[in-house]
Amino acid sequence: MDVLAEVLRVSGARGALGVMLKAGGTWGLWLDSAPGAALHVVSRGTVWLHVPGAKPLQVQAGDAVLVPPGTAHGTAGGAGAAMGSCDREAAARAFGEGRALRLGSAPVQTEAIVLHYEQDPEVRTSVLASLTRPMHITARENAQFRRTVELLAAELAQPQIGTTAAINSIVDLLLVQFVRAWAARHPQERSGSWLGAMRDPVVRDALARVHAQPEHPWTTETLAAATSVSRATLSRRFRSALGQTPGAYVTQWRIDLASVRLRDTDEPVESISAAVGYGSPHAFSRAFRRARGTAPGAYRSRLRK
User: Sign of torsion, CA 211 214 217 220?
Assistant: First the structure.
């Protein structure tokens, strides 16, 4: 079980091309907070990322930075540059016409691609939601990532049959490659988040089992036995990696799966409850109400209005 792929799939963490930027001279662009994450990839020159309360971050050619969901931030040509509001209509027109959004003055000194990633609002388990601050990887760290960016740039430069499908796939691949590269090189910064689980082989093994068989009657004891550690060890390492107990994670994941199926299918509540590991519809309804504040049937009705 590829846990990262499964969480990205269920949480609906799909990406979209935001805009291509070409800038020169003095320029700055302030981006209001948005529900999704933003990935800034610099292909030429230098971009300074500004986040309230933090020092400006220099992002150079070949670098990329992923900004957490809901984070207001700005990009500029200098650490102290003034930033104007983003003209979203102009950006949308540029994207629709297949051209770059021009900022500042000629000649062009900086080129960047901005990608946006959103997640399913009904899913609480999310790789992106675990981010607490911008994640930065540099050109020397990401040879594979850089090749994928070059592929994206080539598709954008010469659109042809299937370009839209290709871009969508490349954007999703970039997110996986970015998380993989960053997590491998910054292990000390992952504790207490979902990414921390990928560092600990015991927790990673336990998560793989839960995600492969969510219908199994998992408890902390059975998970500990399956991963060949004691209950106390699994609990301690789970809390260190994810900030929650094994039981809390199992319940959260089951409710996430159930929420998506309630919204997207016509399966009876009884079938869904069994599929996500509850012995009876009553037990499922009680757990679902605690997690979502309403009964499964009412939840389905509300989302379909």
Answer: positive
Contact 126, 13 (CB under 8 A): yes
CB 261 within 8 A of CB 267: yes
| Positions of the chain with pLDDT lower than 70, given as ranges | 1, 33, 88, 91-92, 95-96, 98, 186-193, 196
What does the pLDDT read at residue 187? 60
Backbone φ and ψ for 215, nearest 5 degrees, come out as -80, -10
Q: Angle at Cα 59 formed by Cα 58 and Cα 62, nearest 5°?
A: 150
Tokens found for residue 13: 């963490």
In whole angstroms, give the CA distance from residue 107 to residue 24.
6
Could you tell me the two tokens for 214?
A: 């969510």
CA distance 19 to 70: 18
Q: What are phi and psi of 48, to 5 degrees?
A: -105, 120
CA distance 222 to 215: 13
pLDDT of amino acid 252 = 95
Whole-angstrom distance, CA of residue 24 vs CA of residue 304? 48
Give dist(CA 17, CA 116) in Å, integer. 6
Q: Report how far residue 247's alpha carbon sits from residue 228's, in angstroms, rounded to the nearest whole number.
A: 17
Task: Quickly tell me which residue has 């107990």 as its tokens.
Answer: 245
Q: Given strand 84-85, what is the order of strands in its sheet?
A: 57-60, 46-50, 73-76, 28-31, 84-85
Task: Please give the Cα distance from 174 to 13 (Å, whole number).
Answer: 12
Q: By 3-state DSSP, what share of the chain in percent is helix, strand and coil, each rounded to 5?
A: 50, 20, 35
CA dist 129 and 101 (Å) reads 29
